[in-house]
Amino acid sequence: MSTAVVHYAAAAVTDRGRKRPSNEDAFGYSVEDGVYVVCDGMGGAAAGEIASSLAVDEVLRLFDSRSRTVPMMQVAEKALDAANHAIYSRAQRNYKLSGMGTTLVGLVVEERHIWVVNIGDSRCYRLRNRHIEQLTLDHSLVEEQVRMGRMTPSEALRSPLRNVITRALGTQCHVTPDIFEMEADSGDLFLLCSDGLTRELSDATIESLMMLDLSLDELCERLVKAANKAGGHDNITCIVVRAEG
Fold it and tell me: So what's the pLDDT on residue 160?
């Protein structure tokens, strides 16, 4: 594995999809600060949109104002706590927003060091050596049943409970994210996405699209277009991040 310093480039697209009246997804990233985030909001009326936007804003704010002497993972943990508190306290002050929350999947990078943080069922994938790997674990009822051997993947896809999230940002006063630490190789391609993409496209289809020789902007557009063509039943958001030597 190379020890060379790695730099990053990124692009993102969000789309309402073909069925939903509004877009409750949100995303944000800063190549300079080394943070990339996708959120998928939930709640009645405009609550989901508010929750996802609050989460993205809080995470980016904390990374933008961070001291460069503080370890990146400490900043990430503080940012997630701040985002959770912002959503939870906002819902406590306004009964119309009661129960609102959001998934969050984020990529935090510092040279070759990578941390993937996850709450909910938005996902992070890595394409390396023409092979895709899901780096996150879904916090959803059906996926947890699959992991325990109580449900097959095909049963999970058909289950009426497939939309039930077991962990979300902002629905409780405290939340614990999954954190995965790894190192990047030059040429690695990371995909952060909401479930509007993964509900429509298989991992094999996502892999084939990510191997196309396209710019990052074109790749994001192609992924979203494919999800819409497959049904577009939900909002679709993706960020593609490339590690460059």
Answer: 80
